[in-house]
Amino acid sequence: MKLLVVEDEPELGRLLRTALERAGFAVDLAPRLREARGFLAVAGYDAAVLDLSLPDGDGLSLLATLRRAGAGLPLLILTARDSPEDRVHGLNAGADDYLVKPFHLPELVARIRALLRRPSAALGLTLTLGNLALDTASRQVLVGGQTLPLSPREVSVLELLLRHQGQVALRASLEERLYGMDREFTPNALEVLIHRLRRRLQEAGASPLIHTIRGVGYLMALPA
Question: pTM surpassing 0.70?
């Protein structure tokens, strides 16, 4: 899942990005509204975390623009504005959740996952195919009921493939979801990741197979 984080304080921004990437998300970090609008214009996101007091304006203006345009992007306000009136104003403006600084990082991750589990949102609780299961909350992978340890990046690509099970997941789409827009990656990074995941699943006896559709992407399905 891909997140947009709008936060102008550099150290906090780095902390948020690190914590969310460790939790299995790809993260784009925007320090100002201008950059946030630029990211939103060219990329798709599953959720956003929005500070309100930004150098070039109030984060609520971005929220208002999104909601006027009919965007249903799940959005959590993360701010130092802690009065009951501020909370009510933010939620009435269209935010889906409101968390006050200082905050507990695991709570932020849990709240984002809760937003993504809502009806019509991007994150189902458990994804299964054959004897393979992924708990998207705990990030635990099971093969035949046995835990299969995977790296965070391996879990992320597995989740994307499971969400497209029976369909071709386009290479460009996978790369966009796995890597932030300002993260550099080698041309064969996805191929190496898929190869490693395929081998790990085969060694564990997983029934689904990952097929390479040359020049297009990857398909996860059960054997015919």
Answer: no
